Prior knowledge:
76% of the residues lie in helices and 1% in strands. The chain has 18 helices and two strands. The chain has helices at residues 17-28, 31-43, 50-75, 79-86, 95-128, 135-143, 157-176, 178-205, 210-218, 228-242, 248-253, 263-295, 307-321, 325-359, 363-382, 387-417, 421-431, 438-464; strands at residues 5-6, 9-10. Helix 3 crosses helix 4 (79-86). Phenylalanine (PHE) is lined by residues 28, 30-33, 108, 240-241, 243, 246, 248, 343, 346-347. It is found in: Membrane.
Amino acid sequence: TPTQVTAGRPREQWTGQVGFILAAIGSAVGLGNIWRFPGVAYENGGGAFLIPYLVALLTAGIPILFLDYALGHRFRGAAPTAFRRVGRAVGRWTESLGWFQVAIAFVIGLYYTAVIAWALSYFVFSFDLRWGDDPAGFLTGEYLRVGEPGISFEFVPNVLIPLAIVWIAAIVVLAAGVAKGLQRVNVIFLPLLVVAFLILVVRALFLDGAAEGLNALFTPDWAALGDPNVWIAAYSQIFFSLSIAFGIMITYASYRRRRANLTAPGLVVAFANSSFEILAGIGVFATLGFFAFQQGIAVADLEGLTGVGLSFITFPAIVSQMPGGPLFGCLFFGSLALAGFTSLISVLQVVSAAIQEKFRLSPRAAAIGVGVVSAVLSVLLFSTTTGLLALDVTDQWANNIGIVASAVIMTILVIWVLRRGPELRYHLNAVSTFKVGRLWVALVGVLAPVVLGYMLISRIVALIV
Ligand code: PHE
């Protein structure tokens, strides 16, 4: 049976179920909840989007989350170790799927840090509304100093300093280990995030125009349900948002003690994540409603409703016009940074744990090694004038192609090639209070590969054409 010991050391552990749940929620609740979900929901049917979203959560999100948990917990390893062990019968090649996930996590770590660094800068800029009255020009011209892509390659100290701070913090946390580092940070940051964000949402609800914003977000466009792209958007939001098929949940579940309830905490994590997403939708759209109201236009005429545009152009513009703007800005950028950081450490742990197991290093040595290499690369890519371009490219590939491919391969490999479905189902049910039936194997083995396969092919086609 798979060993409890890695490189002669007992495996690290969460101190208990609550620590694990908080860390898993910390990973799931990230930038995607705040800057991605609201705009995606709005653009894909508004209130009607909640239907494909829930369907995606129940038919693929939660089932694959359980698969990740089962693999990590049953085979007690980070992604490469877990995939090697599950594939024992067919040779060692299955380990490579784990390394593919590690590679995706590594790439995400590089740019996630950059966005957290920008959020920290903008937290400080909120004090005196440093972006002035042209936040777009400020972002690209003064803050990031975006040059001609590929031509100019210069360090931008504005970004270099916060980026270095984020990397140092991340390395310190990783080096402190699972219980003393990752768990502790989540136990402190997650409640802080919830409080800060709730204050922001309540404030936003009292702004003029908030109701218009909420109407824009929640008014259902039922016709959207007939559009396959809306369904694709729902499945991809769920994937990114739950941090599944990245190796994260495999790694995190491997630190649970032997006899552990797996499914019930999974449900808590999934519903907590979706609740935060909807809360973010309310906060962001109430604020956008105010912005539209100020300009005397409809919410539908606003631009920059997701991602970098929403956070670093639209929000600064709004903060400048709002009574009490600086405080609101601090709450928003502080929330982004907190949500981002608790997700960041989860992706970095995927890489660090994999390296640790492969080369039989101590957790600390692996954490420092991985941290330093990533930090150098991240600084080269993102604190230079190519930063914004690099962000777009890495984000596209890692999210739109990488994790979808990883999920398709993972489900087909485990359920069809290795036929481990029944065994993993048995493992999930052994101690868990919420039992999964055969339907779980069917969802993971049939529905998920079909939907995700369709998604993957349509994206590759869209890239080529
Ligand atoms: N789940 C995170 C979010 O919603 C995204 C994420 C994915 C973070 C993978 C880390 C790794 O933002």
